[in-house]
Amino acid sequence: MTILRFARILWTLERRRIAPALVLLALVTATEGLGLLSLGGLLAQGGLEGAAVGGPFGWLERALGAAPGFEALLALFLAAVLARAGAAYLYGELAARIMAGLMHKLRMRLYRAVAGARWPQVQGARRADLHHALTMAPNELAHGADVAMRLAVACCVALTAGALALTVEPRVVLAAAGVAGALALPMLWIDRLIARGSRDVFRRTARLYDHVARYLDNLKLDRFLARPGAQGATGSAAFEDASRRQAQMARRVRRLGLRSDLAHQAGGATALAAILWIAAHSGMTAGEGALMAVLFMRLLPRLMSAHELLQELISVAAAFAEYERQVRDFAAAAEPRGPAAALARARGPARVSVRALSHTHPGAQTPALRDVTLDLPAGTATALVGLSGAGKTTLADLMCGLMAPSAGQVLVDGAPLAESDLAAWRAQVALVSRDDFLAPDTLRANLAMGAAEADEAAMWRALELVGFAERARAMGGLDAEVGDRGDRLSAGERQRICLARAILRRPRFLALDEATSAMNPLDEARIVGRLAALRAETTILVVAHRLSSVAWVDRIAVIEEGRLAAAGPRAQMAAHGFLGRMAAAEAPAGLDEAPARRAHPGDAAEASDRRGDDASPRPAEVEAEGAAQAPGSGDAKAPDRSGDETNPRSVGGVSGEGAAQAPGSGGAEASDRPGDEANPRPAEGDAREGAPPRPGRGGAAQPSGAPDARTPPATGGGACGAPAPARAAGSSGR
Ligand SMILES: Nc1ncnc2c1ncn2[C@@H]1O[C@H](COP(=O)(O)OP(=O)(O)OP(=O)(O)O)[C@@H](O)[C@H]1O
Ligand SMILES: [Mg+2]
C-alpha cells in the first residue's frame, strides 16, 4: 500500500517527465526483446541446430520473401543493441532530472507544510526528526523514484522477454516460472524482514541525527561532560552508541539482502541444471539444449533484478511512510490565512493589548498564563518582569502573533486578532530573543534577512543605534563574515546584530525577550537609551531579568505564576515588592567591602519577603491596569522623596519623577541631577533621546569603584519608603 501511495506521489509531482521516461523504458524493453530474438536467429544460423528462429521472424520472412540472412540478423542485432543503449541513455538523463526535481519538490512540500503549520505543532516536533526529514529523506525518496522506474523497466523487460521466449521455447519460461514460484515463499518472508529492518534503520538513522545535532550544539559542553564509556545525554558517548546501533541495524538489513541473493543464485543454478538434465534426457539436440540454457540465463536475471529492486523499494517505503506522516501532521495543523487585506499594514506604533488571556502549552498540565489583561499604549515602552517560568515569553509570543491563545484575545489597535490575521500581524512585528539565529553569511545578509529593501545607509544607522558600527567597520564592513551562527562574534555582539536586524524592519511593535541579556549593563544602558528614541515609530515590549534593562521604560508589568500581578506607569510600579526584591538582588556589594558585611542578594530577597508587604504594597495596592494616575501626582512623587541621601537608590531607576515625565526624558533628567552620586541610575542616565553614552556613570551597572561602593548598598523597597532590604538583611546580623 505504501509503495502504491509512493508511486502516486511520484506521478503527481513529476508526471511531465515520468510519462516520456516510461515511453523510453518501453523502447528499452522492445529493443531488448529484439536483440534477444536476433541473437537466437544468429545462433540458429551459426549452426546451432534446433535454435530455429521460428514464429517471431515469420513476418520478416513473409515481407522479404525469404528467411533473413546472417548479415541481416547481425545488422538487426546491432541496431537493436545500439537502439537500446541510446534509449537507456536518454532514460538515464531523464531519470536524473526526475530525481533532482523530486528531491527539491518533496523537500519543499514538507518545508511548506512546516512553515505553514501552527507554531505549537512546529515547536512540539523533534528538531532532529525534522532535520532528517528535510535533508536526507527527500534524497532517499528521490532515489526510490529511480528504483521504482527501474523496477518498472525490469518488470517490462522480464515480461517481454518471457513472452518472446514463450514463442521460442516455452519450456524455458515454464522452468523460470517454476523457480520463481519455488522461491516465492522464502522470498516473501525475507521481504517482510527487510521491510521491518528498513523501518528500524530509518528510526535509528533519525535517532542518530538527533544525537549528531545534540553533539554539534554542545561541542563546548562536551569537552567537559564526555567521559570514556559514559552514557551521557549529550556528547560523544551517546553519539557513539547511536552510531553503532544504526550501523548494526543497517548491517542486519544488508545481510537479509545477501541471503536473498544467495537464494536467487542457488535457485537459478538448480533450475539451470534441471533444464540441462531435461534437455539431455528428452532427446533434444545440443543446439536446442544450448538455446534453452542461453534463454534461461538471460531471463532469470531479469526476474532476480526485479525482485531485488522490489526489496530496495520496500526499504524506501519505510522512509516514505515517515515522510508522509510528517507532511500529513503539519498540513493538518496549518495556520489559517485570511485575505491579505484583513489586517492592512498600518504605519506608526501599534496599540497592543491582551484581554482575559489564558494559554496552556500543548502537553502542559498547567496554564502558562491565566486571565491576563494588559494594554500597551501606542508609542510606549513596557517592561515585563517576573520570575523564571512566570509566563513572560509566552505573553510576548502571543502578543507578537506567534500563536493563538487558548482563551481570551490579543488586540491590535483595539481590534481583536483572528487566528487568520496572525501571519499578517507578524509581518508588522519584530521579536528579538536571547539566542536568535545568525546565518553563516555576511553582516549584510544577516541584516537584510528580515528587511530585504533596507539600503546600506539604513544598515549603518541601525548598527550605530545598537553600538556595533565601529566593530563592523573594524571587521571590514558589511561584507564581513559572521561565522557559523555568528561564532566569530561574542554573544553580546550577536545580540546587537539581531537587534539591528529587528530595527531595520521598522516594526510597529518591537518585542525584546531578554534581547540584551548577554550584554554588560553598561553596554546595555547605552543601547537601550538609544532604543528609547524608537518609540516614535514602534511600541516596545521588553522582557528582562535586570532592572538595569528596564530603567528607561514608561510602564512596567509584573507577571507572577502566569497572572498579571500589577501593571502601570513606572513611577507607581516602583512600590511593587517584586521590583524591590529585584533591586536588592542586583545591588552591588562594594568590592572593598568585607565579605561578612555584604548583603547576599538571596538574604535581601528573603528579608524583603519577610517584611513583605509592610515594606512594599501588595499588587492590589499598586495602580490597577488602565487606572494610571496623572503623571507627577500622588504616589508618583513618593519615590522621589525617598531618593535622597538616606535612601539613595530608587528601584533600578523606577522613580516617580521619571515616569511622570514624557517618555524617554524623565528618568534621564532625574539621574542627571547632582544627587546622582548617591543615586546613580545607570540606564536612565543614558535614556535621554540621543544622549551620548556615558559608560562610567552606571550605578547598578557599576561593578566597582563607583559611588555605590561607598554609599549604603541598594535599598530595594526604599523607593517607596521601605527599609532597604539589602541593608536590612546585612544589618540584621544574619
Ligand atoms: N513549549 C512549551 N511546552 C510546555 N510548557 C511550556 C512551553 N513553553 C513554556 N512552558 C511553560 O510555561 C511556563 C511559562 O514559560 P515562559 O517561557 O513563558 O516563562 P518565562 O517567564 O519567559 O521564563 P524565563 O524568565 O525563564 O524565560 C513555564 O512553566 C514553562 O515551563
Ligand atoms: Mg522567557
Automatic annotation (TrEMBL):
Chain segments annotated as transmembrane: 21-44, 64-91, 147-166, 172-190
Keyword Translocase among record annotations: no
Subcellular localization, as worded in the UniProt entry: Cell membrane
Comp. bias regions, Basic and acidic residues: 594-616, 637-647, 670-691
Sequence ranges of Low complexity compositional bias: 700-714, 721-734
Gene Ontology molecular functions: ABC-type transporter activity; ATP binding; ATP hydrolysis activity; ATPase-coupled lipid transmembrane transporter activity
Every ABC transporter domain range: 352-586
Residue ranges of every copy of the ABC transmembrane type-1 domain listed in the record: 21-315
Membrane topology: Multi-pass membrane protein
Entry keywords, A to Z: ATP-binding, Membrane, Nucleotide-binding, Transmembrane, Transmembrane helix
GO cellular component: plasma membrane
Pfam families: ABC_tran
Region feature Disordered, mapped onto this chain: 590-734
Protein name from the UniProt record: ATP-binding cassette, subfamily C
Organism the protein comes from: Oceanicella actignis
Phylogenetic placement of the source organism: Bacteria, Pseudomonadati, Pseudomonadota, Alphaproteobacteria, Rhodobacterales
